[in-house]
Amino acid sequence: MGERNIMSPFERKFGKYAIKNLSFILVFCYGVGYLLQLMDRSNILISFLTLNPYAILHGQVWRLVTWILIPPPGSGGLFLTLIMLVFYCSIGTSLERTWGTYRYNVYLFQGMLFTILGSFLLMGYCYLFQGEMIAYNTPEVFFAYISPVFSTYYINMSIFLAYAATFPEAQVLLMFFVPIKVKWLGIVYGIMLVFEFLGSSVFYKFAIAASLLNFLVFFLTSRSLMHLNPKQIHRRQEFKRDVRRNTGITKHKCAICGRTEVDHPNLQFRFCSKCDGNYEYCEEHLYTHTHIKRS
Prior knowledge:
Blueprint: H1 2-14, H2 22-39, H3 44-47, H4 53-57, H5 63-66, H6 77-99, H7 101-129, H8 131-137, H9 139-146, H10 153-166, E1 171-174, E2 178-181, H11 182-199, H12 202-221, H13 230-246, E3 269-271, E4 280-282
Antiparallel strand pairs: 1-2, 3-4
Helix pairs in contact: 2-6, 6-7, 6-10, 7-12, 8-9, 10-11, 10-12, 11-12
């Protein structure tokens, strides 16, 4: 109930700005990034796109957006890369269809925001505890070296964890032929992230923490939906949209004919002072209606 109260006012105000088919846009960005990597074997161009907080503070503000173009690390070959892109597009579309466009937008952009904040927090940490290394390598070289840590890999991981939490009983084909429920893959991926967090350098810890924080916020604010299956969640979202679309709130309504200012913008409405109670009438029934008296 609390989650609904928090999300609904913002959704009513900003829901119309939500971007539909955001997964397709994200996958398209990955595709552009892969093409850039193929054309730029030296990674000189890619180095100007990474999420480098030091460079951002020195005027290269485009990095706040362009790091999204850098795709997750490939697992080998064009074919597997295409499979990965199709898979993430599919699960993202399923989440958007089930949660609603606004909620899915919030989840993705929240993850990106946490990643950006994580990169700046890491920069602050490095200045506090890695000062000698920064001075030895110069800040430009040091932060250019660690900036690829913040990539869309962990954004995709948080998308998959959200999918596993929403569709725990769904099945996928592991290695293309072994059917397995998504919840078990989600548990495995979650454990892998925890071990990766514990065993990785401090640079990766900030990136992983940003991803897990995004999923944690989602999980805590969605507990009221966890007992529902995806079809029930989808029906609830559709019902909300239908209510907003078809049940407009009006200021004036005639107690006799039921007409409102929405149906007839030029119609005048007045309350009757002789009726007991707050009864409002249109100009055609204001003087012709039978006064309502409480016995």
